[in-house]
Specification:
Strand content: 5-15%
CATH architecture of the largest domain: 3-Layer(aba) Sandwich
Helix content: 55-70%
Number of helices: 8
CATH class of the largest domain: Alpha Beta
Structural class: alpha/beta
Order of helices and strands: EHEHEHEHHEHHH
CATH topology of the largest domain: Rossmann fold
CATH superfamily of the largest domain: Response regulator
Number of domains: 2
Largest sheet: 5 strands, parallel
Radius of gyration: 18 Å
Length: 215
């Protein structure tokens, strides 16, 4: 089979959380295939066959074994593939502030009754990703009214991954040769510039679409 299925991916080392999340997705009427993994690496192995439209990362899935990624680099890595909904201790929101404000990540405090919120966010993100994929085949006069928001989210995801990984490397600049530091700083500068261009384009689209609506 040549086609690749598209799926929502649940990454959690807590089997109760994983099963409950599956149930909540069914409750919101999700029509997407759902894949479950207990670690980030296990989930990534499945991305080739089941391309993610949205990813849920439960904090339990990081640091569960020697060599696993910590939360911030794990989330940064996953944003290269799809929007990520993270459930973690409330204090982790500050750690992920850059990723959250970029629009690539949604954060939910891992407290009681958090999974219905996670399921709703995953479904919304997945639907937005599907609409964006559909716009690639439309004429200019057929683009949806929320294209600006879709563009902002879907283009910013890989940009955030690039910028986040670059900043992680630059945080260890004392171990890098000067030429590598210079190139990484160039990558970061270009990623920021491109993200700002996307922001301006999406805002301009939304303004034009709003003005074009009949009164």
């Amino acid at each position: 089979m040549n086609s690749i299925s598209r799926a929502i991916h649940i990454i959690s080392a807590d089997s109760v959380v994983a099963r409950s999340c599956l149930g909540e997705l069914a409750t919101v009427g999700s029509r997407y295939e759902v894949q479950v993994a207990s670690t980030v690496e296990q989930a990534r192995d499945g991305f080739a066959r089941y391309a993610p439209v949205a990813i849920f990362l439960d904090e339990s899935a990081v640091n569960v074994a020697s060599g696993d990624l910590a939360l911030e680099p794990a989330v940064t890595l996953l944003t290269e593939y799809a929007p990520v909904v993270v459930a973690a201790a409330p204090e982790q929101q500050t750690t992920l502030a850059f990723l959250i404000t970029s629009g690539a990540v949604d954060f939910v405090s891992r407290t009681s009754e958090f999974l219905p919120i996670v399921a709703g966010m995953l479904e919304r993100r997945a639907q937005m990703a599907e609409r964006f994929a559909g716009t690639l085949h439309l004429r200019g006069d057929e683009f949806p009214g929320d294209f600006g928001e879709i563009l902002r989210h879907e283009v910013n995801n890989p940009l955030t991954g690039i910028l986040g990984n670059t900043e992680l490397l630059l945080a260890r600049r004392d171990r890098l040769p000067p030429v590598a530091i210079e190139r990484l700083e160039t990558i970061a500068e270009l990623a920021v510039r491109l993200r700002e261009t996307v922001r301006r384009l999406s805002n301009a689209w939304e303004d034009d679409h709003e003005q074009a609506r009949p009164v």
